[in-house]
Amino acid sequence: xxxxxxxxxxxxxxxxxxxxxxxxxxxxxxxxxxxxxxxxxxxxxxxxxxxxxxxxxxxxxxxxxxxxxxxxxxxxxxxxxxxxxxxxxxxxxxxxxxxxxxxxxxxxxxxxxxxxxxxxxxxxxxxxxxxxxxxxxxxxxxxxxxxxxxxxxxxxxxxxxxxxxxxxxxxxxxxxxxxxxxxxxxxxxxxxxxxxxxxxxxxxxxxxxxxxxxxx
Length: 216
Known about the structure:
Blueprint: H1 5-20, H2 23-33, E1 37-38, H3 39-46, H4 50-62, E2 66-71, E3 74-79, H5 84-96, H6 100-107, E4 116-117, H7 119-128, E5 131-135, H8 139-144, E6 151-152, E7 170-174, H9 181-192, E8 197-200, H10 204-209
Parallel strand pairs: 4-8, 5-6, 5-7, 7-8
Antiparallel strand pairs: 1-3, 2-3
């Protein structure tokens, strides 16, 4: 008896869910989405052993979520083909319903969704040159790739480095994606210090996936 094609499709979806069904694999994908990294560096970032990291990466590679290449003695990993950033964003969006910290920030009238800006709106502002683009991710992620012309001030350093921002110019902050807490925290801090600030809805991985220009 032939197997129902719909059952086969659901079986493939279940295989995908099993591949992603581990916190360490999702964490690895989150780091790889910021830029190509070696197994050793990924092990440091995730605080896993190199052997454990390699094992998880092999699962992700078999599922098509990552690709690898050799650079001398190092093996470097990057995201595979397909809408992987969209899958990760959807998972974060679902999880965000239960995160009280994010709900509190969104509910703050000084940090409301009216301050969000789309990619198209940002592109228009960048053409006019009337905006400071602020990347609040860690410096390592910024070095792997960032939006053109962006200034890097990690959120944890922002309070001490406000003087580096051009006075009187609107600031657009961004980080890893729509549910990344870094840009929301930066937006609130800047607003409290008198800056006119908006937050890019899409983070760097989404920008890159859209085929827009990046700097390294």
